[in-house]
Amino acid sequence: MNVVSARSLDLTFRTGDGPVHALKDIELDIAPGEFVSFIGPSGCGKTTFLRCVAGLEAPTGGTLTVNGMTPDEARRARAYGYVFQAAGLYPWRTIGGNIRLPLEIMGFPEAEKKRRVAETLALVDLDGFEKKFPWQLSGGMQQRASIARALAFDADLLLMDEPFGALDEIVRDRLNEELLALWARTGKTMLFVTHSIPEAVYLSTKIVVMSPRPGRISDVIDSPLPKERPLDIRDSAEFIAIAHRVREGLRAGMEAA
């Protein structure tokens, strides 16, 4: 069973200035364990599609399932973790306290909360930072803590909305490497929104190229790159060819808009 399946998916927002067609005729299947990046110009519906998967927006046409459930059912079942562009850590809580928050809401026993916090901190290489406060960590470390919080209740699906967009290129490269390693260790399905062509190509097993509003899929690229990817793979002919196809898809989408 696909983790995410969209058929003829539409979403139109009703505004005082008239309808805004955010998504149109989205057809997409995402299999378990895939790393899928969504790339396109601002306003093309990348984040809107992620919010539909999360049950935070309601499509106005077509169908969308998450693990065979409606997005609303999947949200109530805590079937996904969500990582936003800003880390969104509560400044009055320690790093451990931030990661523990969803576990407290879900009513996990104390021993289980302690175990999961320790495990997820180790997964994102933040051992020893449990008692630190967010302001004591760098931006990259805060984002890793945000990822740990999303991983804490062990959902099989991780939704990531430009989590590294505000970070400098050196930190971003390191976190890209760490995220790939995390994906390899956990086997989770990743949906990742980005504006960066190199980031999309480096991370993904599948790249979904979207066109301007109304947001449509202009290309779906299955990556032939190996699962283990050192950063210098970006200099390879295969990487450059995929990046060229993404760029062409973006250009074609802009011209068709």
TrEMBL record:
The keyword Transport applies. Coiled coil: none annotated. Keywords: ATP-binding, Nucleotide-binding, Transport. One of its GO terms (molecular function) is ATP hydrolysis activity. PROSITE patterns: ABC_TRANSPORTER_1, ABC_TRANSPORTER_2. InterPro entries: AAA+_ATPase, ABC_transporter-like_ATP-bd, ABC_transporter-like_CS, ABC_transporter_ATP-bind, P-loop_NTPase. Residues 6-237 form the ABC transporter domain. Belongs to the ABC transporter superfamily. PANTHER family: ALIPHATIC SULFONATES IMPORT ATP-BINDING PROTEIN SSUB, TAURINE IMPORT ATP-BINDING PROTEIN-RELATED. This is ABC transporter ATP-binding protein. It comes from Palleronia pontilimi.
